[in-house]
Amino acid sequence: MGFEKDTTFFSGRLKSVGFAVKGALKLITTEHSVMVQSSLAVLMTVAGFYFKIDRYEWMMQILAFGLVLGVESLNTAVEKIADFVHPEYHERIGFIKDIAAGAVMFAALAAMAIGLLIYVPKFG
User: What is the pLDDT of residues 15-48, one digit of tens each?
Assistant: First the structure.
């Protein structure tokens, strides 16, 4: 028997959340870059409590974490699909993977700038 889509609103949404949690756990437990970024998010959360950052700073910090982890997750998905479609090295697949990695770099640089704007003044 094939896949049957759940058309009921509540149970369908509940299953979708279950799939999302399963995917997030797979990312956190299998992808080293996500492990590092999740660890940094935890460290920065501890720093936020230690330095008693304000509501606006918390919002920016959480947005930065979400941005980096979200883009990294999409990058991982692109890499997995590319490797599935073309397991051997291919110049065009490498180009696509490099672009996805570049997107992660942009998000990480933005998050780093946010972190510096929040925490550098705390040391001055």
Answer: 999 999 999 999 999 999 999 999 999 999 999 9
Q: DSSP string spanning 28-96?
A: HHH-HHHHHHHHHHHHHHHHHHHTT--HHHHHHHHHHHHHHHHHHHHHHHHHHHHHHH--S--HHHHHH
pLDDT in tens, 56-105: 999 999 999 999 999 999 999 999 999 999 999 999 999 999 999 999 99
List, in order of start, the domains of the chain with CATH numbers: 32-123 (1.10.287.3610)
Going by C-alpha positions, the residue among 11, 14, 15, 41 that lies closest to residue 27 is 41
Q: How far apart are CA 41 and CA 45, in angstroms?
A: 6
Q: Give the separation between CA 119 and CA 102, rounded to whole angstroms.
A: 25
Task: Say what the pTM is.
Answer: 0.86
